Amino acid sequence: MKKPQSLQSSKETLAVRAEMIKRTQNAFYKPLNLVDPVLEPRRNSPSKSRRTPLILGGLAIYCVACYGTYVYSSSSTESTTKEKLEVPEDVSDRYNQTAQTFDHEVNTTEKLMGLGWLRRSLTRQALGHVLEVSVGTGRNTRYYDVKKCRSITMVDQSAQMVEVARQKFVGMYALLLERFLTQSAHNPIPRPAPTGFDTVLQTMGLCSTPDAASLLKHLGQLANPTGRILLLEHGRSHYAWLNRILDDHAAAHADKHGCWWNKDIQKLVDDSGLEVVEIKRYHFGTTWWVELRPRQE
Questions:
Q1: HSE-up of 181 (CA within 13 Å, CB side)?
Q2: Which of 92, 114, 125, 224 holds its CA 20 to 30 A away from the CA of 52?
Q3: What is the pLDDT of residues 88-129, one digit of tens each?
Q4: SS3 per residue for 224-250
Q5: What is the rounded CA–CA span in Å between residue 142 and residue 124?
């Protein structure tokens, strides 16, 4: 028995529509990916592994460029040697003339060399009764953790420098017990406690101090038996070629800036008789981080 033509036509129409719907679904919907790409193990990208040494190399070149710029800018106008200039060992009086402009003159150089970070790391260790010698314009002032300090005594030979430091300090820490002394650190310094200071701090001071080994010995006497002497200094390098540059321009640099930048810090430490806790060096060995303490008998 033949099916009616109209019924057969209707079935064919339905089949065509079903095929069209199926094709439409295939076009707009894709099968679900049940694997979470975040959970799949990551493969090392060759390009990333190649970038690492390039980044490290770039940083090294940047550091070399910064230090080279510092040495060049400091020595480009200082080509006269010590024999020609007859510069005295004590050049601390130069700071009287530069006190008001000193911070502005050294800000850029210290930022390029990362000295602010070194100053902060050193100064944050000060605690108890603190003595800071060669305080200059108080460039370490903002780094003190005053909650750990019972008192702070600041000493410098330049009255002009001490006044700049005092203004900074009082503006930041008005309630802390502090003293500002205009004198040589070689001279007697009143102790806030019978046993002495808990922390003695000096940054960039040995370069402008005559008889620096004797000064270090005196600082050891001012510290209490368990006290710490913390130094951040600049001096001779690891490298002979750089030492020759420092030596060639040392006298002119000292005459202009009040700093003998070629002192042998290691020898000064050895001659002081103090016990070495730690020495770290930066910038081709010319920047010295030194921690000392009174030698225990």
A1: 18
A2: 114
A3: 777 778 888 889 999 999 999 999 999 999 999 999 999 999
A4: EEEEEEEEEEECCCCCHHHHHHHHHHH
A5: 10
